[in-house]
Design brief:
Flagellar biosynthetic protein FlhB; 416 residues; cell projection; 4 strands; four-stranded mixed sheet; name from scop; 3 domains; 15 helices; mainly alpha
Length: 416
């Protein structure tokens, strides 16, 4: 007997290896052997589950995310949401639909059972005589069956629709993504990349096995309690039999729904965790995204420098038109100009500090523009008046006193 069992397990192991090895190549997949060596006595006390050639390697599950160490940015979350990609568990919606439908059956149980019995009594006899009806009579009967069947089920259909919507809203809120409706070739076989084992497929496997086992166990326990009663339904009246079967079904669905609710909650948090992992970025991706959002700092500084150089170039070309340059005399230079009929007050046409101040004075000397040293006025004008603006009223007296000392300016305004 033991020899036959050894031979049987050897065949099974060989078959598993023959099937899975071509599919997964060098990937070490999950399988269990009853002993490290088939020569081990299968009935010894040392019997244990071990992994043979195939084994779980957790590194495999992290390989897809290798190098993705940076947390997801708000931009990446927003883009994924626009595509319709959000952390969501289908188990939550399906479980709420099951519980909602079961709840409707519980609340409307008597009415539903009574209407079901009426429906059966009305149409079951007709089903025995279908060969006697003509086409018109059959059409009328079919229309009546459809109408009454819809009237019987519409409360359940309505509540399941509501709970299906609620099951999605509680997870992601109210959201509409037109991009999710667009056609994409990668949606033709969206699960193709999931053929190889990863955390998602392993979790789905465990989840499916848990649902099968738990629902199977709870169904067995509940049905066992009502088994003898179900056997006696042939001796009961129709209403009594329907009531018993409906009650048994209600207990099974409610128990299964509560079990599935626990699985759905676990699935939701797992899907949320997987979604966060999928959004993580490599350092290079995060750096590139930051550059795209805020602009390349190097290029941004370069553009600002070019703008400053252009502005300074335009400003320096205005210095020869100045009536006076006020300095402090080493750090600041402010060039002023006044055009009768255009300006209501002298206007700042150029200003600068340090190197630029020296450049303004150089151009002024080359073009015979008067240079007046007035440290206080130079500092105040530089700090408070921008290029192109007229000087404020508080500067009028001091600036006018400077201008009227200049023969060139007096000739210009007709004072000489």
């Amino acid at each position: 007997m033991k020899g036959k069992l050894k031979f049987f397990f050897a065949k099974i192991t060989a078959w598993i290896e023959a099937v899975t090895k071509p599919l997964f190549g060098g990937i070490r997949f999950l399988s269990f052997g009853l002993a490290e060596d088939l020569q081990t006595d299968l009935f010894s006390k040392d019997l244990r589950f071990t992994t043979g050639y195939y084994a779980i390697e957790l590194q495999l599950f992290a390989a897809a995310d290798e190098g993705r160490t940076e947390p997801p940015s708000e931009r990446r979350r927003r883009e994924e949401k626009e595509k319709g990609n959000v952390p969501k568990s289908n188990e939550v919606a399906s479980t709420l639909v099951l519980l909602g439908g079961t709840g409707v059956l519980f609340i409307l149980g008597d009415t539903f059972i009574r209407n079901t019995a009426i429906f059966i009594k009305k149409y079951l006899p007709m089903g025995m005589k279908l060969d006697r009806f003509g086409a018109e009579e059959f059409r009328v009967i079919l229309a009546g069956v459809s109408r009454d069947f819809f009237n019987l089920l519409w409360p359940i259909l309505a509540i399941t629709l509501v709970f299906a919507i609620v099951g999605n809203v509680v997870q992601v809120g109210f959201m509409f993504s037109p991009r999710a409706l667009s056609f994409r070739f990668d949606r033709i076989a969206p699960n193709f990349k999931r053929v190889l084992p990863n955390r998602q497929t392993l979790f789905n496997l465990v989840k499916s096995l848990a649902k099968v086992v738990l629902i199977g166990v709870i169904s067995y326990v509940l049905i066992s309690g009502d088994f003898l009663k179900v056997l006696l339904t042939g001796n009961m009246g129709m209403m009594q039999a329907i009531t018993l079967i409906t009650y048994s079904g209600f207990k099974i669905m409610m128990a299964a729904g509560l079990l599935l609710l626990g699985i759905a909650v676990a699935d939701f948090f797992f899907q949320k965790s997987e979604f966060e992992e999928s959004l993580k970025q490599t350092p290079s991706e995060a750096k590139r995204e930051m550059k795209e959002d805020s602009g390349d700092p190097v290029m941004k500084n370069r553009r600002m420098q070019l703008a400053r150089d252009m502005m300074q170039g335009n400003m320096l070309r205005e210095v020869p038109k100045a009536d006076v340059v006020i300095t402090n005399p080493t750090h600041y230079s402010v060039a002023l100009s006044y055009e009768m009929g255009r300006d209501s007050a002298p206007r700042v046409i150029a200003k600068g500090e340090n190197r630029l101040a020296l450049e303004i004075r150089r151009i002024a000397r080359e073009n015979d523009v008067p240079i007046i040293e007035s440290p206080k006025q130079a500092r105040l004008l530089y700090a408070q008046v921008e290029v192109g603006e007229e000087i404020p009223q508080e500067f009028f007296q001091a600036v006018v006193q400077i201008l009227i000392t200049l023969e060139k300016f007096k000739k210009k305004v007709g004072m000489a």
